[in-house]
Write a structure and sequence with these properties.
heterodimer, A: 115 residues, mainly beta, 4-stranded antiparallel beta sheet, 0% helix, B: 111 residues, 5-stranded antiparallel beta sheet, globular
């Protein structure tokens, strides 16, 4: 299995631009999580999905952030308009029911820099 | 908000020595997990210990959990330079719920 795939790996953009981050979870996993990592706040949950349905988006900072999961194999996290304080590493993770259900498998992350 | 707090924030040891990292948390949990993050990379799951377990081993890793003190420790024995990374504890309330991470311990193993 290729693991969780994220793209792009690096993104540099200017303030005000739209940014779209992409994630492909591990096949068969029906939970998908978006986390953000910054030096100041560490790793924080933004939103998570179960069977493509958003379950908890209380971690989404503000209306500039939106996330979708149109099917079981793809999710996007969009920031519009982007701001310098959005600079961070964004991780996608997936997990599955069963004996291994608590383990989340992380993608390599997208390192976002907003100038 | 952070649930787990790792201690120490940074640790530097010589290759071959043991490394111990601690984690404290605030609320009741279902399980506690440890993850490793190499510089600029994603998180790799190391080990999970459930709330009804006290100790667990995996290779050179040993994890303990004391629910009465709301604390856990990760011991890496016979450390190697390749163990250099940040280590995070993460708490979970039940299967497939989001993990709450601490800020991590930066471990440097000097060859």
């Amino acid at each position: 299995d290729a693991g969780v795939i994220q793209s792009p790996r690096h993104e540099v953009t200017e303030m005000g631009q739209e940014v779209t981050l992409r994630c492909k979870p591990i096949s068969g996993h029906d939970y998908l999580f978006w986390y953000r990592q910054t030096m100041m706040r560490g790793l924080e949950l933004l939103i998570y999905f179960n069977n493509n349905v958003p379950i908890d988006d209380s971690g989404m900072p503000e209306d500039r952030f939106s996330a979708k999961m149109p099917n079981a194999s793809f999710s996007t996290l969009k920031i519009q308009p982007s701001e310098p304080r959005d600079s961070a590493v964004y991780f996608c993770a997936s997990s599955t029911p069963g004996t291994d259900q608590e383990t989340q498998y992380f993608g390599p992350g997208t390192r976002l820099l907003v100038l | 908000s952070q649930q787990g707090e790792e201690d120490p924030q940074a640790l530097s040891i010589q290759e071959g020595e043991n490394a111990t990292m601690n984690c404290s948390y605030k609320t009741s949990i279902n399980n506690l997990q440890w993850y490793r993050q190499n510089s600029g990379r994603g998180l790799v799951h190391l080990i999970l210990i459930r709330s009804n377990e006290r100790e667990k081993h995996s290779g050179r890793l040993r994890v303990t959990l004391d629910t009465s003190k709301k604390s856990s420790s990760l011991l890496i024995t016979a450390s190697r330079a390749a163990d250099t990374a940040s280590y995070f504890c993460a708490t979970g309330y039940s299967g497939n719920t989001p993990l709450v991470f601490g800020k991590g311990t930066r471990l440097s193993v000097i060859a």
